[in-house]
Amino acid sequence: MLKYLIKRVLWMIPLLIGISLISFLIMHLAPGDITSNESAFNPKASEESRQKLREMYNLDKPVIVQYGLWLKRMTTLDFGKSFASHQKPVFWQTTDKDGNVTKGLIQEALPITLMINLLGLTITLALAIPLGIIAARKYLGWQDRSITLFNFIGFSIPGFWLSLLLMYWLGVANSWFPISGLHSLNYDSLDTWGKIKDSASHLFLPVVIPSITGLAGITLFVKNGMLDVLHQDYITTARAKGLNEHRVIYTHALRNALLPLITIIGLSIPGLIGGSVIAETIFAIPGMGKLFYDAVLMRDFPVVMGILTIGSALTLAGNLLADIMYAWADPRVRRGVVKG
Amino acid sequence: MNWPLFKKALSNPLALAGFIIILLIFLLSMLAPVIAPYDPNDINVKAILLGPSLQHWMGTDGLGRDVLSRMLHGGRISLLVGLVAVGISTLIGILLGAIAGFYRGWVDVLIMRLVDVMLSIPSFFLILAVIAFLTPSIINIMIVIGLTSWMGVTRLVRAEFLSLREREYVLASRTLGARDYRLIFTHLLPNSLTPIIVSAVLGVAGAVLLESGLSFLGLGVQAPQASWGNILTDGKEYIQFAWWLSLFPGLAILITVLGYNLLGEGLRDALDPRSGHHK
Question: Which string of b and e fits A179-211 if b means at least 16 CB within 10 Å?
Fold first, then answer.
């Protein structure tokens, strides 16, 4: 297991170097340099502030030196201060010499995005696993066909459109749920129970909608996994032993069918992080996605580059976690018998 | 693609349904200048936010423009962006996948590591970051979507090439002294076409969704040019007063993407007997 772990962690180093190269490339995409691009959007930007930007990204130095300095920034997670709020796009808070505490932008935004995605993922799994099992057991029956139809629609529906429709139906036409933000204005004056109810009703739409759109993929995956497993010899053996169908499905087949789900969830992390942009923008949730979107609109380069890099690092970390869990769950992988 | 294969593909009901949907959407969009009842950019202050009626089948928007006309013209943008973006990503994918699968060795390692790197950057963040440094326009959107979605095709083509290059007919051709480009273009590539076409068709579905999302966020197709995504932006703006601005463009996106998904999955079922079939 330890050998596997070490190999797996070392594997991330070339990926991190690749990420640094790509992000460096993106910074140099702008025609001319980023200062001229910024001035195109903000003609009033003074020569002084342009000079500051040039110094921050060392645009006066040779490209190879610039890359070296970018790499150094990446390893120390020092992306500079946001132009808009003077906060840094980091996980931690900083205290200046007067004792003023400044929170990191990611420190504020990441927990919100994580919470919404974890809640959404829980709902998705709670619905997708039973649906996938039904579709596999009734393969080509009407249950399977309706689930397949549902999956096609789920793959094709634009999530932001579904958000708008539900927002209109549940939030505007019926006002059952609030349609923006995380709390009501009077949140601080509510008692504990009131606070929980208030948060839950604000979270309902932003959590439920992505979990509906994510349902199709996971359902299909569980179904195919179950179909594969149900044709294997050990299942025939279990049936031949005279075990009832319930035990065959839920204790023998399900475990092996669900194993690859760990990897799929790990691989879906970049999509979840990236997908949070649209959902959080629609519902005005101050998470990573909205932070990134606002930074893009304002050409707030330190925040854009900071979140791009940290978002990628989080993806790598998520995949690492998924692989470790897989190795922990499947002894064949950790003993190196088969590749996970 | 040869004709019998095409017929076989469309004998699959899913593929046929998808094909008809896309054909209809294409016809409607191509004929937009002829059949659109109004100029899509004609502002009419006397007809602001009117609901659907006989004069305006899909109502009017906040500037009094006819939504049906804007939808028809917007359809051209969605289809164009989808096709060009996937054209770019498929070409890149074929090129890199072919090189990696045919030559193997360190080029293969390098290309596959690049794929891993690209897959570990959240793609929506990557696209938005690139747009932050460029300016949003139709051309830029097509290029950016194309440049950030070639990884799947690359893996696919590489896998096909790795398996095909060991086949006897390829070995025979090689023994007869065929050059690399001949092996690639007459033996390997034509035999990998089916999965490439399937993945391209499904890719268009993804690209249409992506474009509409970007335009919805105001980072894609820019006003006054109509696209389904940016009509939905208005829809959100006027969600309290004008449901028709949200309903119709979203329905159009859903139907188009569904068409491509049906066609793609149907083609896979019809042409590729190996994949996804259970007894």
Answer: beebebeeeeeeeeeeeeebbeebbbbbbbbbb
